[in-house]
Amino acid sequence: MLKGVPNIVSPELLKVLMEMGHGDEIVIADGNFPAASIAQRLVRLDGHAIPRILESILKLFPLIRMWQSR
Fold first, then answer.
1. Which one from 21, 22, 34, 63 is the annotated catalytic residue?
2. What pLDDT is stored for residue 10 in this prediction?
3. Least enclosed by CB within 10 Å: which of 7, 9, 28, 53?
4. Catalytic annotation on 48?
């Protein structure tokens, strides 16, 4: 386990987040979203709620949290 990285964030998701650049987008969707047919990359986090996934991802982006707290 990496310090400061929530355990819900898989190694695959962590790699995708690290490779993201300006203008890249990420979609966090439920199982009914047709991701397999439109996604360039697909990381599944089956069994986890969207709010928990979002909260875990935002913990890795301190600048976003600073902006949100204003």
1. 22
2. 93
3. 7
4. no
